[in-house]
């Protein structure tokens, strides 16, 4: 009886350790991805790439440690000493140091400089390697360790790891995001890993050494927290600027810096505004309001606290509404604003709504004379959703008969590079599909004024209204109008914008403007030598993977590994597609990403659990199981394709963002269900380390291709259809009588 009690206690403790491992892995992944999003300006395409690189390193670590679970040779109660707790303890300590390393990597680019795509690709791989590979090594060693100690099958370890990830996603979304900084969350995560590892000391041959190592980890965490390493690393991250304030809110990373007398406000590393700089705030506000004969009610979406509100209130308006989704933004900026900007915030005509701009447009009933879109260039999906046909339709419904929608995009004064021209054309053509009139004010930035009736942009009329409204500006003055609204320049730009070939229309689920701006960004950094190094690295990586996976007998096709690779590939593609759909419809994936990941891991966990209860492997060969799994995943992909098309129609029916968020979380469940089910079934006849590596490497390839190439070129719905077609092909191929590999690592029935 005492032995049974001891066995039960050991089983509960060991299983709890795997749950904590799953919690720690997803926590580390979320924290590192958030830090990288600041380094890469919140670009979701690089978020997908970063996710892919993370899976690549985790798969590599799992593969290398699939059979090795001993840290030293020698009997310890008749067994080898396990390496699992040592690796796990190291993983916990590494996370906060990795966050510091990511922040310090910004110093490589120099003051005020941005990194190019090739630098981002290499740097992401380097920064994610230590924690990612170590996380995979812990799983690879853990499966063997728990199989030896408790006879736990790999599928059970997979299930418990997924359960820990679910808990982490829920905790992160509702407890950590926006309440704790990334660094504080990393310290808590490391302390949790340290706590769960202490009882493992009794299984190690050198207890004192392990205890000393655990104590060293504890002291390191105390020093990191006590010496305020968070603040110190942020100062180094923004070296060259005077860092005034930084905060991780629920909707992004906020940073306020100062250079001389000018303050710069950054969101996710992308500059959102700078102040005090009246000239920068005057153009779009005064051109839009002066082109309307009597603007009484104005809506501004985007940056407004640092100068735009003050400029709007110079006009005889009755009401100014401003939407800002992040409630932390006002308190964050208010102490550093000038007296005029603070006074504008307390003006009785101003109302600030803490919600997404598109959600506000759907629910509000009144009409506006002028709607000003004052956002940065659409360098990520969150901003691009304000430059799509769907948004323009929503804005048109809230404009009065002579109402004007005003927006500003990057351009060029005299010469338009091809990719910038395509980007300008895409936004212009998308506006033209919604509004009858689209007027231009070209210069370094292109101001577009869209309405159902022609805006009054005659320089003399604007100058007359300027004087009637008693304006006192610095840049937008009567002498400014003839040069900015020169008919010859406008005709030149209009000819360029309407010249063939015509670009595609920018839509929520086909973000072509995003693609054109992405290409323009590539042109700034394109270097043949850089891409030569990239190709060489890709070749060496493929050669290394081939060496790792090389078998003693050549095989034309291995259905089980091919199926798991395909399921991992499709699962991560579907996951990223749903993340982008969430971003395009709801608009704040930054803090909800933990819940979406938790929904995906719930599917994996349920699939793994049910796979342990199903005895299909006794009735069907692994080859046929592999084919059925691929066909099942293809069926889900077709369902997802239909749902993506359906969600675009649901938006037109004013379905609330909360309802769409619930729907997308539910859709995330089956994305992981079949991959988890397949791993559980096939791990009974194949090496768990091989399958886990194939699963993660498939996910890695899928994430990299989806993030960098497939989404911009194909759009969301078309990509879901293409992946489903590929799965059908792999599924059919699995039923054909190809010769399979047999060796000591992988045995096929």
CATH-defined fold name of the largest domain: Growth Hormone, Chain: A
What is the helix content? 55-70%
Structural domains: how many: 2
C-alpha Rg (nearest Å): 28 Å
Biggest sheet character:
7 strands, mixed
Mean pLDDT: 78
Name given to the CATH architecture of the largest domain: Up-down Bundle
Strand order of the largest sheet: 9-8-7-10-11-13-12
- Considering the protein shown, what is the CATH homologous superfamily of the largest domain? MFS general substrate transporter like domains
Summed up:
The chain is α/β, with parallel strands linked by helices. Helix content is 62%, strand content 11%. The protein contains 27 helices and 13 strands.
Descriptive overview:
The structure is a single chain. Strands 9-8-7-10-11-13-12 form a seven-stranded mixed beta sheet, sandwiched between helices. The protein has a four-stranded antiparallel beta sheet with strand order 3-4-5-6. A two-stranded antiparallel sheet has the order 1-2. It has 27 helices and 13 strands. It folds into two domains: 11-233 and 525-734, Growth Hormone, Chain: A; 274-518, Vaccinia Virus protein VP39 (Rossmann fold), CATH 3.40.50.150. The two termini are 41 Å apart. It is of the alpha/beta class and 749 residues long. Residues 1-8, 69-81, 528-532, 551-557 and 740-749 have low confidence and may be disordered.
